[in-house]
Amino acid sequence: MIKKSTHMSVLLLNLSNAHRRYYRSLAINKPISRFPAVHPSSPINLKNDNTEIVQKVYMALKEEPSLDSLKKLSHRLTADHVIQVILRGQLKVGCLLNFFNWAGQQQGFRHTVRSYCTMIHVLCQARMFPQARSLLEIIVSRKGRHSAASVFQVLVETQIPRKHTPPAVYNMLMNIYTRSGMIPDAIQCLRLIKKHKFVLSLQTCNAIIGSFLKSKSTDSALDLYNEMVEYGVCPNVYTLNMTITCLCKDGKLGEASSLFDEMEKRGLSPNLVTFNTLISGHCKKGQISDAYKLLTVMVEQGICPNIVTYSSLINGHCKEGRLEEACKLFEEMKGRGVIPDGVIFTTLIDAHSKLGTIEAALNLHDEMVKQGIKLDVVAYNALVHGLFRAGKLKEVKRFLDLLVKTGLVPDKITYTILVDGFCKEGNLEKALEIRNKMAMKGMKMDNVCYTALVTGLTRQGKVVDAHNMLHEMLKAGFMPDDATYTMVIDGYCKNDNLEMALKLFKEMEHNGAVPGVIHYNALISGLCKKGQTRKANMLLKTMIDRGLVPDDITYNTLIHGLSKKKNSEVSRKLHDETGFISDFGAYTSLMDEFESKPEFTRE
Known about the structure:
Blueprint: H1 2-28, H2 48-63, H3 79-88, H4 93-104, H5 113-125, H6 129-143, H7 148-157, H8 168-179, H9 183-195, H10 202-214, H11 218-230, H12 237-249, H13 253-265, H14 272-284, H15 288-300, H16 307-319, H17 323-335, H18 342-355, H19 358-370, H20 377-389, H21 393-405, H22 412-424, H23 428-440, H24 447-459, H25 463-475, H26 482-494, H27 498-510, H28 517-529, H29 533-545, H30 552-563, H31 568-577, H32 584-595
């Protein structure tokens, strides 16, 4: 009897010691005032019946791993009981985890964040990180967004005294928030890790920087990089590559190059990704010579250029109009055994099409087909555009048929190219037919499409229709350029409809467009052709009053208009001056000279 009583006293002493340690941890780890406080769970009830439950569970787990004997206690079991069992120790961690999972499956039982976190700490101490991560993932999925502060705080509060919990648990939480797309929560975890002076994981920091990069939040990625370095986390090549990518995307090539130089100081060697990122950045900025310098360094370090390297260089040359050098690079890469992909072929086809060397573009197409590379819509668009420019309409139809046969669907750019191409070919009927197809497919026309139709309608003398298309263009949110307005104004003038030309001129101003010299020249030309030289001169004065500088076309149009109205002698003399008047002073001097003669009258 004495032995039994002594044994029970020892158990109660051990239990009360565990409880004291548990509450001491709550007292030491105060809630962080800058974040929402997480109140501890209800105090653990230390009544005899609860102590008895914990003791019975403990003994059952120690003696019978099957858990069957615990079923009669399941309806009385609480999360606090589970915590007490876990804190007692002396049981295998696997056994505790089985009990923890079993408890969660019992009807009427509910784990708390605190019971989860207590089990997680024990698992981490046993280096059972996958199991700990699974439980953390459950917490995050249930708590959702904006929960980092509260979950982190409970993790700190439940850390078992006198036992070191690996810092992995806090970095693990940050990583789970990152992978769940809850980046603000991940950042909050990072700040809390720093606040508590825990070790910050490079791998987790890299994961967050990568997430920022995917979401194109380059500024946030750069801020995080600076923050982790300041905290003492040493970046690796992967970190620096991502940071260099951010800087290149922001066009900060100077800073990217500085970071590249810093790699050597840190004892890190740039890899293929590093060089490709910087070469691509320089090529996009048109800095081809700097890209070549990097290529030289790359080869000197024994790193062979790959398809990404050549793709950046070829694209950079094509954008700068250096097609011949791009073609040399294309041959060089093939000579090195690097097989070009569809992107490189399409880049070169597009460059040849724009330059007008359509035969070279067609040869590249044939080479693609031989290599079994399927053309995409972008490649077909480039070819169709080039064929229109070359006037090869039969070939246009052939490639359009091929596009459809290969299962591709013409996109908005395809239709725009067709509208523009048919308008330039004078086939307005076909252009309008394509426009109607676009409308049926729910495709909205862009600025290029509208401009092409306005131009095509004007050239065929359908100026009123062109004017209506301008209105439609404005309603769609596109502002016609100077050349488009000028074409329609000039079209009205050529049709002897000066009233509508002047009306469109005023509309243009009302719509927020500022008339330039070419618009005034179009109106002055129309007035002079109608013999209204006085109004033409008044328009000249308006131009000058508005701060516009008339050009030689303005003055010579006026002189030519005046010469048609005078007698043969005056007309001949004015005609002789055409082409030699280039400023207002010379024009005024000429007018004063002729106006002093009795045979000269303006109108």
